[in-house]
Amino acid sequence: MRPADQRKTAVRRCGTLARLNPALTGRMAGVARRALRTRGARAGDRGLSTVEVVILAPVMILFILVLVGFGQLVDGRGAVDGAARDAARAGSIQHDYGVAMSEARKAAAADLEDVCVGSVDVRMTGSRFEPGGFFKVEVSCEVRGLDMIGLDIGSTVKATASSPIDPYRRAS
Fold this sequence. Notes:
Layout: H1 3-20, H2 25-43, H3 48-92, H4 97-111, E1 121-124, E2 134-142, E3 156-164
Antiparallel strand pairs: 1-2, 2-3
Helix pairs in contact: 1-2, 3-4
């Protein structure tokens, strides 16, 4: 609507209200003037909110994606810690070293099935596999994280856990 049309509309509204209640004439004229002034001031700001959305929306979306990526890294870290604990316990109750490593790998793979991108690496870091010792394993895998937004930041997560080798473990 052009400013001239806006003025005519405001004057028409004031005239209608003045006929209904003559006491409102002075107040309504002031309201109409103020309305015209504010509309004129806003005319230069037309489209500004569109520019703000175009600039701020991608920044906000990127910020949310970074938060989600870091959340996946933290979740992956917790899952790998739990998998290392489970792998150490599964291996410590076995009678033979080969079976112990096999069970440790199975336990870690089952825990990290939906967390890791590639394969799960399980290796024994202790020196001996005998009663009274400790079965110590290190579990590592690559976790989804900031790769989803294109940042190739190292997201390989490692965790170490140990469990005492059970003196009353299974006999083969």
